[in-house]
Amino acid sequence: MSLELFNQLEQKITDTVEALELMKLENEELRGENALLKQEREEWERRLQGVLSKFEDIESDSVS
Hints:
The protein is about 95% helix and about 0% strand. By secondary structure, it is mainly alpha-helical. It is rod-shaped and about 90 Å long. The mean pLDDT is about 95. Keywords: Cell cycle, Cell division, Coiled coil, Septation. This is Cell division protein ZapB.
């Protein structure tokens, strides 16, 4: 294998390793964002359930 081919291979390997490291960092960041979004969704669901419960209470009071 010529020195030039070896250098090209080495550069491609280096580029690939760097790309993988960046992807790992991005993946960690996205996991964090996903966790926050899940918390927000759960909070909205909880609040919505509270509002629906109030409507049900009003409805049951008006029927009684």
